[in-house]
Amino acid sequence: MTSPPVFEADEISDENFRIIAGIAKNYAGISLSEKKKSLVYSRISRRVRQEGFGCFDEYCVFLMSEAGSGERQRLVSALTTNVTSFYREKHHFSYLESLLRQQLYTRLEHGEELRIWSAACSSGEEAYSIAMTVIKCLSTIPNLKAKMLATDIDSDVLQQARLGSYAVVEAEALFEDGVLTSCRLEDDRVVMSEKIRGMIRFRRLNLVDPWPFSSCFHAIFCRNVAIYFDRETQDQLWGNLSRRIFPGGELYLGHSERIAHPERFGMESFGHNAYRKIPSGRRGA
Has 80 been labeled as part of a binding site? Predict the structure, then answer.
């Protein structure tokens, strides 16, 4: 039996870095400057070893081949950080509660369909937190119409999200917030109820590709994605998101993300990393 090649590279060449940075940019809009070279080495050297390549040269040749399409997706996953938790950045869920109770309740009570998008849902905690907030605020509306879209570029984390099953230690916030009525305990796991899972459609979506829908939403969570983009790609994203928000609807970003001059996109800042779509009658006032 032939032994796998030993990976011994202690750095990544300029050419291999350019190849990996180009793939990240073209595939997912991720901008990697030369300052990120050591980060790329630390993240991607693990992939090179795991896949049995002896050096970055071999790995990059494979990445650029037709057979490397799946690995290009895994490369993007390795370069980004899938850190999430239930009710992360709680102020956004407070904003959502206010939107649901104060701005939308009457309209929803009269039959309007609620639409919310978790645009970088990772392993699902954000999407389920949104769904549980909806149930908490709108449980008194009979025959509530509510749909949620949850998307991510990473197929592997989407599969975890669809299962809706989390270790108890990962779901401590659910015990604190008293929302276990939307879940059930199974041994050392917290499992989302059928009702909650039925509210959400999980789909793979690359935010820098054309979006295969034209729906608008009352609220969009797009957190900790734009940090990987350059300014031009960010501005394209802000414009695309704004066009998918109903007037008066809200957009929530990650803690280190800002929209410079949000009025360019028909939005206004109203809270911490939160923006509201300005109704057309108020623009330019």
Answer: no
